[in-house]
């Protein structure tokens, strides 16, 4: 039986995806290849680049091991590995847009994606337009003859609206656009974009794949049709990742399934506990039946990860800061997917469509691997401090 067959359980596949130990004398893990120069046996081989590895920027056994693992999880034809999650967004956007083309981006996108589109993409002559995360099939009304890319992210950054990915992908494909998805929240364990009509699946591997808040990395996976251009984009930009970081992420993948299950369970438990608690107006978590897009999440996703937001019942910055400053276990800091819990205030100042209204300050919680009762007690401290600041 093939150890990465889809018939096997996800943890079995995670334990064996990527490298084949027999390629390296049976050692379970692949070597970390630090490389720029690769030698050729003779001038004819060099001139024709007639061997598997030719230069460090073009792939090594270490990057291949991770890319193969991600292909097996995503069901993709090829994966590039880049130095951060943000690079995993910018490299495909650059690779697939042309001057004079039109790009549609979901309004609730990760803020630095928007910043890249509004600055560098616009300077390069690309027309950028934002759309409502809940647009669904109606996106067809926004498609133009020059629409080259439809960029999706589901659930939304910070506010967790779900997108109807199959409907959007269908409409975009009919109009000849490439469909990209930032799939970091779900990981390929809970959603496989290419199975739902997406062409390019993007991950900030910094989050759950790395899992320990000590590595930055991104992966971009393409279907057969779009792999050549994506690969060419990586080679042209020279945006390759460092071998030690690539190795750390491959190492992280082995335990991602068990970690994610714990993150998921704890986050859902805390989200349910928060609903209806004094001082809480709403909980923005798509796996909650109260979430307006719960049916979409249930239809398309097979799980939920460990990050969601809570809307406080009234107040403003003073209450939000009182909540955050009272926390003793949750750290105040950016990113997510690591073993430790984090909280940040959410700013929706960049949005033009998906801006609410919300009843009070929105606070994003990344639920780590700590014990749930300790995390609940910490959040309770925050809610009491916010109430006292009123
Ligand atoms: C949805 C999403 N995509 C991409 C990124 C970027 O990842 P990185 O921090 O590795 O650049 C983040 C980071 O928070 C994110 O939340």
Automatic annotation (TrEMBL):
EC number: 4.4.1.13
Keywords of this entry: Lyase, Pyridoxal phosphate
Reaction(s) catalysed (UniProt annotation): L,L-cystathionine + H2O = L-homocysteine + pyruvate + NH4(+)
Domain of life (superkingdom): Bacteria
A Gene Ontology molecular function term of the record: cysteine-S-conjugate beta-lyase activity
Cofactor(s) essential for the protein: pyridoxal 5'-phosphate
Signal peptide range: none
Protein family membership: Belongs to the trans-sulfuration enzymes family.
UniProt-listed NCBIfam families: cysta_beta_ly_B, PRK05967.1
Protein name from the UniProt record: Cystathionine beta-lyase
């Amino acid at each position: 039986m093939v150890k990465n067959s889809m018939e096997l359980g996800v943890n079995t596949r995670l334990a064996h995806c990527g490298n084949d130990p027999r390629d390296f004398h049976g050692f379970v893990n692949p070597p970390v290849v630090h490389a720029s120069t690769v030698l050729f046996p003779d001038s004819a081989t060099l001139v024709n680049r007639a061997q598997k590895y030719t230069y460090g920027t073009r792939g090594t056994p270490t990057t291949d091991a991770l890319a193969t693992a991600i292909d097996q999880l995503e069901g993709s034809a090829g994966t590039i590995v880049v130095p951060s999650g943000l690079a995993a967004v910018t490299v495909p956007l650059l690779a697939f847009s042309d001057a004079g083309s039109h790009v549609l981006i979901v309004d609730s996108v990760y803020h630095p994606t928007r910043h890249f589109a509004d600055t560098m993409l616009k300077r390069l002559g690309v027309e950028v337009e934002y759309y409502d995360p809940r647009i669904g099939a109606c996106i067809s009304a926004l498609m133009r003859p020059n629409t080259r890319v439809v960029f999706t992210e589901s659930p939304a950054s910070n506010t967790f609206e779900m997108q109807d990915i199959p409907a959007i992908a269908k409409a975009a494909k009919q109009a000849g656009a490439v469909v990209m998805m930032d799939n970091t929240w779900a990981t390929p364990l809970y959603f496989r974009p290419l199975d739902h009509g997406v062409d390019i699946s993007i991950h900030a591997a910094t989050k759950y794949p790395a899992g320990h808040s000590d590595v930055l990395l991104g992966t971009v996976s393409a279907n057969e049709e779009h792999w050549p251009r994506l690969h060419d984009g990586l080679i042209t930009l020279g945006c390759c990742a460092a071998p030690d970081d690539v190795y750390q992420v491959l190492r992280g993948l082995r335990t991602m399934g068990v970690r994610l299950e714990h993150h998921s369970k704890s986050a859902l438990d805390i989200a349910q506990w928060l609903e209806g608690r004094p001082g809480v107006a709403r909980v923005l978590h798509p796996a909650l039946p109260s979430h307006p897009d719960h049916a979409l999440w249930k239809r398309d996703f097979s799980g939920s990860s460990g990050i969601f937001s809570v809307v406080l019942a009234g107040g403003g910055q003073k209450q939000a800061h009182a909540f955050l400053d009272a926390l003793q276990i949750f750290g105040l800091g950016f990113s997510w997917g690591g073993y430790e819990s984090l909280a940040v205030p959410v700013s929706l100042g960049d949005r033009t469509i998906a801006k609410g209204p919300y009843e009070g300050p929105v606070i994003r919680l990344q639920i780590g691997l700590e014990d749930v009762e300790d995390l609940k007690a910490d959040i309770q401290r925050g809610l009491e401090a916010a109430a006292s600041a009123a």
